[in-house]
Amino acid sequence: MSIALRDVRKSYGRTTALDGLDLDVREGEFFCLLGPSGAGKTTTLKTVAGLERPDAGTVEIDGRDMRDVEPYDRGVAMCFESYALYPHRSVYDNLVSPLRSPRHRLPAAEARDRVGAVAELLGIGGLLDRMPGQLSNGQRQRVALGRVLVRPARAFLLDEPLSHLDAKLRQQMRAELKAIGAVRRTTTLYVTHDSVEALALGDRIGVIRAGRIVQTGTREDIWYRP
Ligand code: ADP
Ligand code: ADP
């Protein structure tokens, strides 16, 4: 899936979150949006997911204008930094529910297999019977990421998905995320304020400041810039 934003503007009251943002994410690439807190990263993702409506400008997915397309018809799956899990459902039920919703009902056996595979990949296979309240922050964050990765989406929108993990786990998960992207060739738009993370993960990186993209390039372009 390709994603294109053209001159997108979005304000909250007197705060300008997006100030003429232009962004191109190509089919199958792992694109990192890098910038400081408040730069407009989350607003950008929400605009792509259809959870926020631009005041001006256009969002296109595969060349199609998304203006009148509902969030669940956009083919994207988004992971929020403030991960919301169902507190009264087990980890397994949290992971399987996106696959059993009325709009995307997968056969039970297929749903179970997908959940098992993603849980193994994220190292939470042993936690499936627990309740969210019995997990550490890092484990909860991996479950939230799992809820996104199980979806048969054509693009993943990930908002600081590793921010609550310790350094070792974060490094391990980076490698796994990169591998998932490479195997599935799912377009990934990944938000972070951490330049090490962006350089490690991104096929390309877009630097965002004050609601605009100020630089886009490969890691070499960004890294070696004087
Ligand atoms: P980032 O993800 O880069 O930290 P955000 O997209 O969350 O940035 O926010 C961009 C700007 O918009 C910030 O100044 C933020 O305070 C403001 N903002 C974001 N969401 C809201 C909201 N719902 N109401 C008011 N201001 C908001
Ligand atoms: P249920 O309530 O049936 O368990 P969800 O609340 O997980 O289902 O999701 C309801 C619908 O909203 C889903 O069919 C899905 O298309 C959409 N949706 C939910 N979460 C996300 C997400 N993180 N990214 C994209 N779409 C989502």
TrEMBL record:
Key word Endoplasmic reticulum present: no
Gene Ontology MF terms: ATP binding
Alphabetical keyword list: ATP-binding, Cell membrane, Membrane, Nucleotide-binding, Translocase, Transport
Residues in ABC transporter domain copies: 3-226
Record-given protein name: ABC transporter ATP-binding protein
Organism: Streptomyces tricolor
Lineage: Bacteria, Bacillati, Actinomycetota, Actinomycetes, Kitasatosporales
Full-protein positions shown: 1 to 226 of 363
